[in-house]
Amino acid sequence: MKFDPETINTADIQLADLSESDLITAIHHIKNCKSQLLLKRCFDITVSSLLILLLSPLLIIVVIGVEISSQGPAFFVQQRLGYKQSLFNFLKFRSMYTNWAAQRPQDLAVNSAITGNLLKKVNDPRVTPLGRCLRQLSIDELPQLLNVLEGSMSLVGPRPLMIHMLEPYPNFSKVRHLVKPGITGLWQIRDRRHNNNACYMIEHDFEYVNQYSFWLDIKILIKTIPAVLSMRGAF
Prior knowledge:
Elements: H1 10-16, H2 20-31, H3 34-69, E1 75-81, E2 87-93, H4 106-115, H5 129-136, H6 144-150, E3 154-156, H7 163-166, H8 170-176, E4 182-184, H9 186-190, H10 202-210, H11 214-230
Parallel strand pairs: 3-4
Antiparallel strand pairs: 1-2
């Protein structure tokens, strides 16, 4: 179901969320994918290790660049929902100023909690010049290779979201967390520009979980390359 998150109401949320039968269907499918999920984990360990090794010069340069271009740490760490709805420390290169003092009005904060909206806009003044470049090239996501290596994420899977973004959609949250969250996935290669509400991800994430196979992961990884190069939805 497509709708505008800015005008969402309780009835819209209930209609957008997945049904109990959708949840049962997804659980049944994932239970039959144990061998493919084991293969997925072996693939994740191998590829993430190689990429960290190959990209280490770039990672070091970015760490230095972030630290000297603006005050604050090189890494942004935030708790996100992961496998089986457990919390984990999600890593990114920091792309925002740490001393940004602007606060959202109270009515926007309340609306965000109810609807699951994420405050994200083009030319966001909270984003540093270097951070904007890192975002456009998706380089800010590279530290998540460490998440993949240690097992809290996968190369492919539903995007790890902030807790408040999933609270309006309890069944959807249960379905998407039947598998580990990923650096890339169906939503990222199809509709990345719509990224301020989980409702845009329901269709894609349910399809991924309900039709999961190791070969689907491979197809998504291949299609991720042109999606990143196009910089669609990156700001």
